[in-house]
Amino acid sequence: MKIRKISALFARTSAAVAMMAAVTMVLVPQLSQAAVFNPQTATLDNGMQVVLVENHRAPVVTQMVWYKVGSADETPGVSGIAHFLEHLMFKGTKDIAPGDFSKIVARNGGNDNAFTSWDYTGYFQNIARDRLDLVMKMEADRMTNLQLSDDVVLPERDVIIEERRSRIDNNPGALLGEQMRAALYMAHPYGRSIIGWLNEMETLSTQDALDFYHKWYAPNNAILVVAGDITMDELLPMAQKYYGAIPRGDVATRHRVKEPTQHAPRKVTLRDPRVGQASMSRYYLAPSYNSEDAADAAPLELLSEIIGSGTTSRFYKALVVDQSLASSVGTSYNPVAVDLATFGLYAVPRGDVDLADVEKAVDEQIAKVVDDGVTQDELDRAKQKLLDSAVFARDSLSAGARVLGQSLAVGLTVDQVESWPDRISAVTVDQVNEAAKRVFNDKQSVTGWLMPPKGGPVTRSGPSIPFENDGGVH
Amino acid sequence: MNHFTKHVAGLTVAAFATFGLASQAQAVEVQEVVSDGGIHAWLIEDHQNPLLTMNFSFTGAGAATDPDGKLGLANMVSGLIDEGAGEMDSQAFRGEMENRSIGLSFDAGRDDFSGSLVTLSRERDTAIDLLRLALSEPRFDDAAVERIRAQIVSGLKSAENDPRDIASRTFFKSIFGDHPYARPVSGTFDTVAGLNANDFRGFVGRAFAKDNLIIGVAGDITADELGPLLDEAFGSLPDHADLPAIADVTPKFGAMDVVQQDIPQSQAIWGQKGIKRTDPDFYAAYVMNYILGGGGFSSRLTEEVREKRGLAYGVYSYLADLDHAEMMMGGVATRNDAIGKSLSLISTEWTKMKDKGVTQEELDNAKSYLTGAFPLRFTSLGNLSGMLVGMQKEDLGKDFLDRRNSLVDAVTLDDVNRVAAKLMDPANVTVTVVGKPEGDLTF
């Protein structure tokens, strides 16, 4: 209840989203957990990058293939095709029958899934180390040999539409988030819903998917990341054998529209009878590690930690503890993007407090940061927390693979990932304060209000009984 | 996650689990640690990174024991005991946690009250001290109580119109009737409004004790180092918990409940009788459920409902065991005009499983997945310490990790088909649908 996050991933099954969300929560504000992963790297002759994070705790590996293409690379009018293709990558090649990919992985004791975001699309398997050869052969096969026909594509289109209903249309908070992003980006495709606009999803065709596949899927637009119980001496010959055999492709270049200067704050209000608890949120355009003002990225990671992370953050202390206006509040910032990033905040009013009063209190805190800045003590504590998070990230088999894959897929380097602690350590109070002044610019922001209909909620059907499974060991 | 440990005598006993699937077998050693003060824990040492995770559980101290009129008590305590303890008020306590990157959290389930501690080795002593304070000297200051109450109320409001939450509470009310399992873990607006510091202190005094405590630890610590920390954290607890017994219950199945809500997609959950974790046929049922609806893209339900017909993004079934009741449950979400079709297909699969069972090939595939994927659970410390608690709670023995795959492998085709015929009960399934379903709904 103390943490809420904005989901930015769609996936073949909800388990993948949960997994990515967990990683996002821990890692994202801090790009990388850097010098922590100690990855080894290589590049195949056809241009495919290879990254290995050794971890010998258990005799298992994670294989991930990241393509440097996502929903922001779609042609206008064909929204959702990046994510749709991700689903269709499980629909077979001449050697693997439709739907067999995951069944073969399962028969070999592995789990697999895939996910799509604005800037990348990823596929992964977790499996015993001696089965890596098998899944690598299959992953390489579908990189170049995908076969699609209407009889498997059309039912899957119904599946992604059901996925949209589950994630977005049945959830007023998600609907508002979609509207807010569309309002935040006037020109850039980051304003597009990853899963797609419903009216466009309904028209997606087999040919649309194949066109997107041939345009973007090739070894020179992909990154292989492996984590687990294997050495580079074992991995590289295998990668060469399967991925190295695929010729370099004539891959399109990402042409992203540049967001024009914005001149006015926007406000989006969604009233819906399904809203039991009102809330407000806001997005500001913010720099990423790739954009102009990239030097502000590390300071903004620290700023987000100082003002909006945890129950001793500035915002929580002011709005929740001292003023009793909110029941929860927080910020989010992930600078790992090809183009611009988003600095987000949210607040849930306490009791009958008006959204307007909560928003006013948020604005007062922002003004205080802009006018008076943060303190050296706040910065030192935030740095320690971020640097510690790197140690926790190392404990998970897949966290390193995810952070490295995500970073490389948006055009960052392994060195940039690994030097993240140094960058964080070097940030000064002045840099945080200057970055705060730049990012809290109302003219490039959207504020969202989620509210019940005028007159209040429609039903009051009683309390919730969330059922958690037994957590037993089977 | 449940964490509770029992204690035995002073020696460290080790069991080894090996995983034969991989070319090089590796071992996980489960040690039993007993402190000078008699606190027991199971430990997996792993010095790869300078951190450790501890999971623990006070068994039988979950929401099912909330007194009538005080529903939500265990849940509210779980939100409050890390909000100020000893000399530290809430902000001081949370500051110690956050500034030192110590993760301490508590959770009330229906059966158990559990907690977890994650810390860097550097902060181990402080982490243990915070845990001790939370369990033995929570303050329940007025400001913190009102703040957490407001957060719980906010959660209740959010859940009020959420289709999944509505489906869940309707379903449990339907099958459990007057049993405590029918009641909301988070309480109601009315009961949460009435809970006070005396209630919380009473709960802590009754619920946290040495005789209902289970502990699992994994990470950068030796058995010798762990012993004194166990005494430090848990040594001051009373010997015996004082908790009401919860009656075993046979859930009532066979209803079709529809809750009308104006949403584009209907959310359905269903359930029927289940099987006890201790039943000799448990693994046969577990394998059967994998084939029916537990195996993701390898399951029959996914094949019929999603792959062939595109009727849902997700469809699944699972065995759900509480301490005093067992269910076999499932869920699906489909557009309003086709939810009936989804349920009809699922019902057909239910009957087919009962009547015809599974094939040898399906059984072989299920076993190769379930045994091959077992080592995937050993990839983070939190998984390991959580599993150690579950193993103790279910009395599986320290050698369970070593034995588990042989339990799966021992399941025969006859076992699965015999259990399917006995367990599957398509005539007595309770279904809850939330949405605006069109057409006939039958299971």
Could you explain the architecture of this structure?
Chain A folds into two domains: 10-242, 2-Layer Sandwich (Cytochrome Bc1 Complex, Chain A, domain 1), CATH 3.30.830.10; 266-451, Metalloenzyme, LuxS/M16 peptidase-like (Cytochrome Bc1 Complex, Chain A, domain 1, 2-Layer Sandwich). Helices cover 41% and strands 17% of the residues of chain A. Chain A has helices spanning 14-27, 81-88, 100-107, 132-144, 150-169, 172-184, 198-201, 206-216, 232-242, 297-308, 314-322, 355-372, 376-395, 399-409, 414-418, 420-426, 429-439, and strands spanning 10-11, 40-43, 49-54, 60-67, 111-116, 121-128, 222-228, 266-271, 279-286, 326-333, 341-349, 445-451. Chain A has a seven-stranded mixed β-sheet with strand order 1-5-6-4-7-3-2, sandwiched between helices. In chain A, strand 10 and strand 11 (341-349) form a beta hairpin. With 443 residues, chain B is α+β, with helices and mostly antiparallel strands. Chain B has two domains: 14-234, Metalloenzyme, LuxS/M16 peptidase-like (Cytochrome Bc1 Complex, Chain A, domain 1, 2-Layer Sandwich), CATH 3.30.830; 256-435, 2-Layer Sandwich (Cytochrome Bc1 Complex, Chain A, domain 1), CATH 3.30.830.10. In chain B, the strands form two sheets. In chain B, strands 1-2-3-7-4-6-5 form a seven-stranded mixed β-sheet, sandwiched between helices. Chain B has a five-stranded mixed β-sheet with strand order 8-12-9-11-10, with helices on both faces. The longest helix of chain B is centred in the middle third of the chain and has 19 residues, at 142-160. Chains A and B meet through helix 3, strand 6, helix 5, helix 11 and helix 13 of A and helix 2, helix 4, helix 5, helix 10 and strand 10 of B.
Largest interface: A-B, 88 and 111 residues
Please identify, by name, the CATH architecture of the largest domain in chain A.
2-Layer Sandwich
Average predicted local confidence, pLDDT of chain A: 90
**What's the structural domain tally of chain A?**
2
CATH topology of the largest domain in chain B: Cytochrome Bc1 Complex, Chain A, domain 1
How many structural domains are formed by the residues of chain B?
2
Stretches of chain B where pLDDT is under 50 for at least 5 consecutive residues are 1-26
| Rg value of chain A | 23 Å
Oligomer: heterodimer
Number of strands of chain A: 12
- Strands ordered across the widest β-sheet of chain A: 1-5-6-4-7-3-2
Return the CATH architecture of the largest domain in chain B. Answer: 2-Layer Sandwich
The coarse overall form of chain A would be globular
Number of helices of chain A: 17
- The topology string of helices and strands of chain A comes to EHEEEHHEEHHHHHEHEEHHEEHHHHHHE
- Helix fraction of chain B, binned, reads 40-55%
